[in-house]
Write a structure and sequence with these properties.
Blueprint lengths: L1 H21 L4 E7 L3 H12 L4 E7 L5 E8 L2 E13 L2 E10 L3 H7 L6 H21 L2 E11 L2 E11 L3 H18 L9 E8 L4 E9 L13 E5 L2 E10 L6 H12 L9 E4 L13 E7 L6
Antiparallel strand pairs: 1-5, 2-3, 3-4, 4-5, 6-11, 7-9, 7-10, 8-9, 8-12, 11-13, 12-13
Helix pairs in contact: 2-4, 2-6
Length: about 300
């Protein structure tokens, strides 16, 4: 009996020690949502701009882990986000919340009462959940499978920007490219497209070529900001994106998830082909883009 009591006391002491001094969170919230991790990652990052944050949101070792420091009055709350894909475009989100200055006091109170800290945490996470649900109602991604990226000769301008600025970079250059090509009577050969040449997923920064596929001829304007290159047919994973082109990169994440699940190695240099002119308006869910994620060539 004495041995049992000693073991019990040691277990309780170790448990309390872990709970108060090692456990990384004061309060944990879990929820599931019907979308893939990349869409959640980007929604959290945009939602972060609406909060009174101490520092910019940090993406940790990968897009599945994020950390925020949010100011509420005289307290700073740390939100550690973990996003877990469950399959069939369903993800589980685990939020570990900690008060930077009052962690011990919160851990003491949380098991015995519904504290203001818990209420604030639930309200904040609920706001994020509503943002996610609103966002995923505004686009659709359909995985097609493997296809070749169409061979095209394009007139383009190189652009550097953030992912969120991608569509803005397109609109800034669309009229310029179109006007110059029209003035030189260059024949178009398909809808506008972009070819990403660099994608930094940690900083959400992009470098891409945006332009029009054209028929190569002697009429091509020289001495302008427009450059020319041929895109060769390359095996790729393809998806159809419907929605505002500002968030067409959500299809990139869906293709990465598909590639991971099917053990397909890809290059993070997507190609997008746009079939609608946003200036014409209309229901954004009827806007269409074809999205390609190149498959890495085998060395066999």
């Amino acid at each position: 009996m004495k041995t049992f009591l000693r073991i019990l006391i040691v277990v309780v002491v170790l448990g309390l020690g872990w709970y108060f001094f090692i456990k990384p969170s004061d309060y944990t919230i879990r929820f599931e949502t019907k979308t893939f991790p990349g869409a959640i990652n980007q929604t959290i990052k945009l939602w972060d701009y609406t909060l009174d944050t101490v520092t910019p949101i940090r993406q940790m070792e990968d897009l599945y882990h994020l950390q925020q420091k949010v100011r509420f009055g005289d307290s700073i709350h740390i939100y550690d986000w973990e996003i877990m894909p469950l399959g069939d475009s369903i993800s589980k989100v685990i939020v570990n919340v900690r008060d930077e200055q009052h962690s011990f006091a919160n851990k003491l109170k949380v098991p015995f009462s519904d504290t203001d800290f818990e209420k604030r945490s639930r309200k904040t996470v609920l706001n994020l959940m509503e943002n996610i649900e609103d966002h995923i109602s505004k686009f659709k991604v359909t995985i097609v499978g493997e296809e070749d990226i169409p061979e095209k000769y394009i007139a383009y301008v190189p652009v550097k920007c953030t992912q969120f600025q991608k569509a803005g970079g397109m609109m800034e250059n669309l009229s310029y490219i179109s006007q110059v090509l029209l003035e030189h009577q260059v024949e178009l050969n398909g809808p506008p497209m972009i070819q990403v040449t660099k994608w930094d997923m940690e900083s959400d920064s992009l470098e891409y070529n945006f332009g029009h596929p054209i028929i190569r001829s002697e009429k091509l304007p020289i001495g302008t900001d427009i450059e020319y290159k041929r895109i060769f047919p390359t095996r790729a994973l393809k998806a159809i994106y419907n929605g505002n082109y500002i968030t067409s990169d959500r299809a990139w994440y869906a293709l990465l998830d598909y590639a991971k699940k099917n053990n397909i190695e890809v290059e993070n240099k997507p190609v997008e082909v746009f079939f609608n002119n946003p200036n014409m308006g209309g229901d954004e869910l009827n806007w269409k883009a074809e999205i390609y994620m190149p498959i890495k060539e085998s060395n066999d």
